[in-house]
Queue: 2 jobs
Job 1
Amino acid sequence: MKSSSQYLYDSYKKHFQEIADIKYASAVLQWDQETYLPQKGNDTRGRQIATLSELAHEKFTSEQTGHLLNELMMRDDLSSKQKRNIELSFEDYKKNKKLPSAFVRKSTEAINKSFHAWVSARKENNFKIFEQPLQEVIDIKKEETELLGYVSHPYDALMNEYDKGLTVKFTDVLFSALIPHLTVILNRIKEVPQIENDFLSQFFDKNSQWDFSIDLLKSIHFDFEAGRQDISEHPFTTNFSSRDVRLTTRIDEYDFGNMTWSCIHEGGHGLYEQGLPYEEYGLPLGEYCSLSIHESQSRIWENCIGRSLAFWEHQFPNLKKYFPNQLKNISTVDFYRGINKVTPSLIRTEADELTYHFHVLIRYEIEKQLIEGTINSNDIPFVWNELYLKHLGVKVPDDKSGCLQDVHWSHGSFGYFATYSIGSLYAAQMWNAIQNNQPDVLEQLKIGNSSSIFSWLKSNIYPWGRFYNSNELCKKVTGEVLNAEHFINYINSKCKTIYKYK
Amino acid sequence: MKSSSQYLYDSYKKHFQEIADIKYASAVLQWDQETYLPQKGNDTRGRQIATLSELAHEKFTSEQTGHLLNELMMRDDLSSKQKRNIELSFEDYKKNKKLPSAFVRKSTEAINKSFHAWVSARKENNFKIFEQPLQEVIDIKKEETELLGYVSHPYDALMNEYDKGLTVKFTDVLFSALIPHLTVILNRIKEVPQIENDFLSQFFDKNSQWDFSIDLLKSIHFDFEAGRQDISEHPFTTNFSSRDVRLTTRIDEYDFGNMTWSCIHEGGHGLYEQGLPYEEYGLPLGEYCSLSIHESQSRIWENCIGRSLAFWEHQFPNLKKYFPNQLKNISTVDFYRGINKVTPSLIRTEADELTYHFHVLIRYEIEKQLIEGTINSNDIPFVWNELYLKHLGVKVPDDKSGCLQDVHWSHGSFGYFATYSIGSLYAAQMWNAIQNNQPDVLEQLKIGNSSSIFSWLKSNIYPWGRFYNSNELCKKVTGEVLNAEHFINYINSKCKTIYKYK
């Protein structure tokens, strides 16, 4: 017979799954907005999404939720997974209760305003238009850190939204271990002849690129019975359950790399979502661990695997079938070197694996200071341009290719950027663990077999959901907490092979 | 300054628009289910749709709704449109309250069971499997007629769900005016040589058919900035506001007619949805009048216009550009005759404009008797086959091509079929009014111009929403209530021209 705790747990499950139904419904509406929505449908779509969000929020912050969770927190006859679900839901609930609805409303309004200002500012290529609305968002974010609470640095409270347990202290240590090494490598590369990769900018027709993208996704085990790919302006991954995962990509006919690595990147995100436990639908253990771990799952496929020589030894002949003329004089090694060219640049999303971290560092430093209050939004262009010159040696010509390039701040997403770098470091550390665990992994990749990599991720990363936080999971599967060493070794060895410096 | 009634009306509007947001969100999820959903996503999608339906229902039947409507029904300082919205919402609310939630649950369960039984029965080509589950649905429908109430015939209560004010008495009069004339025409056709239209069954490739379908929709003024077309197994039209209308079509490469007239048909539905007043979003005046009027809007474009010689005098040369080989020996008149071939057949959805009404009559007669209780579900196959022999002279070989062909009964949609015929009669009556009003309409069609037809519909039919019921609207725009005469004249004159009988 079912115990009273099990009855109560069932009520909790039903309640939270209904909230998930509403949230996922809203995600379907957003997916449709980015892929198929006719232009004039935008206004009504906005209000439909807003209504669903409010409903989900109301249901989540209702007395019923509080009652269920308070009651279940006192029960000790639940399984360890059930207990963990309750703990995590309770954490979410308490955090949510810390933000009064008047504050949430104010925040939504400020973000809405700042997003529109950012769009105008980009159009006019003038940060001044964005300055004041952005400062309002920053002030609200500062207030949020006080409402949420923190131990040592206010910015910790914001980073926690994306990666629970992440701190300024930890991130500073990581960057200070990482950045000097990357600077050394970058300087060495400057001393040797640069790689030529113009062949990536020929004409690659849309339909063949699309077909190749499907091949790529199949090769990395994306399940098309539990997901699909469509076209959107900015690639993204979303899901409406672990059995319905939607990827999008974009195709630039004069830039082969644009689709290819964003496709593998989103595919990696998609594999993670498809691997989350379906039976935990709507509950914390059915949700991804953190944005950092999510990013590690995209980066390991995009970079560690998708930019490796072994991977392309198998894929390149296939690619040549689609584009025989464009690639007829290119060898696999030429291709491998070309797709790994390292060069300082202005735009984060177009950066190579190495210089990418400088882009992230710059944003991280600026955000920290904005939240500390040591700088304000009107200082951003100056600080931004100084840091780009210092770290990457590039001169920022205008705001559009400088501090107006990313949407994140206009959305109020402060504390997000670091997870991009941290995700890459997790990826390198996991990739190292996989290679130690499976010494023939590169040999297998060369013959087009990535099953053992997929199996490793499928049994070590995907099934845990939010059971562990990022670093606990990392320690469990790699034997040590996150450190910069594995990424440094990985990128150093790759650059050395490619650039042939001493 | 706003009056208290206006404040109250604003609350009503906000409340009903939120309910609409949820319903339309559910419609997006259903549209996605029919067009893009990956196979394994089906289960979760089912529960997401169910949760949204329950939420919308809860909100609609809440005390808040009752309070707002009761209060507003007593106000006399509202505009006539506002009053009409309140009256109609109140009607809906009261009707909804007549069905206790236990009854709704029982009904949903029975329909779910009968739908699955229908699928199995079709697969096994055996009505027996469907018989008992269907009888349960029929019994529930009988109960529903008592709960909803009716004046003279219980079946009236069910027809009212689809077309307010429609009665058995009125429908019987229509059919008895219509059917004898159609039988006479059918007999005349039997006496003259049959038309040859095999050319429609050649190979017509998918992509060209798709491109032609877009041409067709543009030619009838479908606004692609406020809607789109996609592929699904069964063509349908849905909308998420009047500025986001989704059509679907299917393409059979060996049956040119399959896509063409279903595309124009759905396009006609879509034009109506796009023409409904956007400012009445979520309120009765923003909703379609009735299923009969909806059907009139699809049929007028599909048949009166889309199967006219004038229309194809312009479109046929365009079509020939897509399929020069298939159509090289076919003249516009051959084509016109071919697409209007009249011949008794087994399947409703494949029937021509004339014999279509016999298919509807047969279902109408059977439903009426089932609801009266003069026959039961186990009588259906016999009665069905008898009626097909009597009216169309065709022998039904098995249940699949007989009484198992339509999904409607398995969905509990009793009272629906008549609206198909009635919609065609409304279409013919409106078409007659348009021709009287615009004597050069056919001349305009010949040069590809259907703007004046579109304008007439856009000013006479679309903007009214549910302000009038079907027959009130008909009288207002054609000067008389619905009668069979216009359709009889229309089809008689067409068949005479095509078959050249005396």
Job 2
Amino acid sequence: MEPQFVRLDAVRAFELAAGVSGRPLFGAGAMLNLIRFEPGATVPLHSHPHEQLGLVLEGMQALVVAGVVHELEPFDAYVLPGGIEHSAYCGPDGALVLDVFAPVRDDYRERWEQAS
Amino acid sequence: MEPQFVRLDAVRAFELAAGVSGRPLFGAGAMLNLIRFEPGATVPLHSHPHEQLGLVLEGMQALVVAGVVHELEPFDAYVLPGGIEHSAYCGPDGALVLDVFAPVRDDYRERWEQAS
């Protein structure tokens, strides 16, 4: 793979959930995904085998893990082990979050490639 | 591994190079590292087998790869394949950058654990 340099907030977006868009950058073993939550948007309870790390950039993202709410603000970071069920919602102003997945999520790559 | 939630800019820092500090968060297969460049600081030419991704958060970070300078500003993101030689420097106001490595850099973990 060649080095890549991209303006991440100008990458084509795909829909993660209603009101939640992602702008991805795919490496070989890991990927970035710049997530925008519109106010009131939520990500329902789900899990994936990929490890997920992330950093909140703007607004508030709440991650709900094992029934415990973690309200995260700018510079709050996290690691969710693969396979753990989680859901998410945002504060009244929405949120901007950088997610990281390892390994790469091929399901996201397919959805992103199909997004027009 | 349990889920982790941390205020990344309050994590204990370790020195990456003169005037360049890192605040890490270690997952199982990937890690975050919040890098602060003081004005004028540089990272000399080096390489590592780990893939490196990242996002500039504040200021300007220049990555020099194969002799080509890539001047990166907020929301510019990158992927550097493992094993590629690169160096870095910052703009006059320094820079704040989120680096991501996969797999985890055990050399960073050791240096961070030894940082007082």
